[in-house]
Specification:
The chain is α/β, with parallel strands linked by helices and 400 residues long. The chain has 15 helices and 13 strands.
């Protein structure tokens, strides 16, 4: 191994430790749920995206096991070469109906869906206009494209600032770009607030732009049966591209792009992660079909999610914690200082709660927070224990 390179890696890692930005993942030793075994310790898990508790649902597990018996464990090829099974096709058809779109194309993950779709839809004659708090996968997808997008050029607008978005659209028209893509998260993953999608769509229609919404944290959370922000705001047919994940509320893995039949055909031919990735194992697709069926026909998990989220937010607010205006189950507890946030995470762990400190570069410097995720899998006892832990840790930090 090259000694200089290894030395550089060591120096960079030490720098992260010095800045309180270094991360060491904990190991889950039980099925995902509200209370889990992690690193040999039972804890209330407030850092999971398993919104509806479907990751270990009996019907989802049974569907996966049945698919193994029928299909085996692998697709055997890249999807366009011969790795698309009828179970994959069934999943895409059901997702398209669920999203009220003509078609859906499934990718191996939400990140790959963004990195496949965005570059495929843009050329060097186009511009991307993006909210400054968009997810890293959107940012990387935009960077992979040849379109204009830099913040310094005015194409990244301040968070949810519709005046700034309109100014950028006017500027884009003046500069003669062929296509103008507006990209926004539906629900912002670190703050838990909702994009002003009706205003974004209105401006897009006025200035002849098209809209892409990343609904990773809206899927299963907002809209009819959890269909997302377009459903939530009744904007069917007015959002050109919708991204959804299959690894959060649906509890399995993957991501998808929902839109027109023409968009799907184009991505099959030019979406690089689709073109060069083996298809999902068939039991994944079958498990997702089962999870989608639960979402569409059983309102109880989504109702329980929102009941738990509201109780958790209200309890934190009553105790004086700053939840940063969150509107969704994503509930950040603002801390500010990175070192203090890391210490808070450590002390919460000692109290039997796993709640992750979110620090730079995931959020801006000096904007660290503990990000909590109440779910349908949590009980009243779980959330009560967690609240008491937050109060104890706050008192410890005040006297430290």
């Amino acid at each position: 191994m090259n000694a200089d390179f290894q030395s550089w890696l060591g120096e960079q890692l030490q720098s992260l430790k010095d800045q309180h930005l270094y991360k060491v993942p904990k190991i889950l030793q039980s099925p995902a749920g509200g209370r889990v075994l992690m690193n040999g310790k039972e804890v209330v898990n407030l850092s999971s995206n398993n919104y509806l508790g479907l990751a270990n649902h009996p019907k989802v597990r049974a569907a996966a096991l049945e698919a193994i018996e029928k299909w085996g464990v692998g697709a055997g090829a890249v999807r366009w070469i011969g790795g698309t099974m009828s179970v994959h096709q069934e999943l895409e058809e059901k997702l398209a109906k669920f999203k009220h779109t003509e078609a859906v194309l499934v990718f191996t993950g939400g990140f790959t869906a963004n990195s496949g779709c965005i570059p495929a839809c843009l050329t060097n004659h186009d511009v991307v206009i993006s909210d400054e708090l968009n997810h890293a996968s959107i940012i990387d997808g935009v960077r992979l494209s040849s379109a204009s997008y830099r913040k310094g050029d005015g194409w990244v607008y301040p968070h949810k600032d519709m005046d700034a978005l309109e100014f950028a659209l006017k500027k884009a028209n003046e500069q003669g770009f062929e296509k103008k893509m507006i990209i926004t998260d539906g629900v912002f993953s670190m703050d838990g607030d909702i994009a002003p999608l009706p205003d974004i769509v209105r401006l897009a229609e006025e200035y002849n732009a098209f809209v892409m919404v990343d609904d990773a944290h809206a899927s299963g959370v907002l809209g009819k049966n959890g269909a997302g922000t377009a459903s939530h705001f009744n904007l069917y047919g007015r959002v050109d591209i919708q991204l959804g994940t299959l690894s959060k509320a649906l509890g399995v893995m993957g991501g998808y792009i929902a839109g027109s039949t023409l968009l799907k055909e184009w991505l099959i031919n030019r979406g690089r992660p689709y073109l060069f990735s083996t298809g999902h194992p068939p039991m994944v697709a079958a498990a997702l079909i089962a999870a989608l069926d639960i979402m569409e026909n059983d309102p109880e998990p989504m109702n329980r999610l929102w009941s738990n989220a509201k109780c958790w937010k209200n309890a934190l607010a009553d105790e004086g914690f700053d939840t940063m205006g969150s509107e969704t189950p994503i509930t950040p507890v603002y801390v500010g200082d990175e070192g203090k946030a890391q210490e808070m995470e450590r002390l919460l762990w000692e109290e039997g709660v796993y709640a992750l400190a979110i620090v730079f570069p995931t959020v801006g410097r000096g904007k660290a927070r503990i990000r909590t995720m109440p779910s349908a899998a949590h009980t009243e006892e779980d959330l009560s224990l967690a609240l008491n832990a937050f109060k104890k840790v706050r008192d410890k930090l005040k006297t430290a």
